[in-house]
Design brief:
8 helices; mainly alpha; 0% strand
């Protein structure tokens, strides 16, 4: 009989996401992930299967978090599309500049890093171009897996 998990998957994914965001996929070691998550190698691999799968889960989490933040950004109810787009882009710039590590966009970093690329990761950049669609969920489905 296997032991029940004694950790929160989302907390582990958040911690791993921070490491991948800081170092990139290739430069991140299993030891880096263990140190940041507080888990041993066996627990990481039993829970997520591989470094790459944990990476994909981290990138998905980033995408969902980013999409939620974009939807939550205030927009004037009667504002034009141009004004709403401007507010969205300025908000994203503010978020990026507020990051002292200047890590950039994890989704774009992931899409351009060859060693971490998979079909799911490579699909992120084109889907990111649908950013404006998040303002009208009735006519456009969510774009993050």
């Amino acid at each position: 009989m296997s032991r029940p998990r004694e950790f929160d998957d989302q907390a582990v994914i958040d911690a791993a996401m921070a490491v991948f965001w800081e170092k990139g996929y290739e430069a991140t070691t299993t030891q880096d992930l263990c140190a940041r998550t507080g888990l041993g190698r066996g627990s990481l691999y039993n829970a997520f299967g591989s470094k790459h799968r944990l990476y994909e889960e981290s990138v998905r989490r980033y995408g969902r978090t980013l999409a939620e933040a974009q939807v939550a950004m205030p927009a004037e109810p009667g504002g034009s599309v141009r004004e709403r787009l401007r507010d969205l882009l300025l908000g994203m710039i503010d978020l990026d500049l507020a990051d002292p590590g200047r890590r950039g966009c994890l989704a774009l970093n992931a899409a351009t890093e060859p060693s971490g690329r998979s079909e799911m990761v490579a699909d992120l950049a084109p889907r990111g171009s649908q950013i404006c669609a998040r303002y009208d969920p009735k006519s456009h489905p969510p774009y993050w897996p």
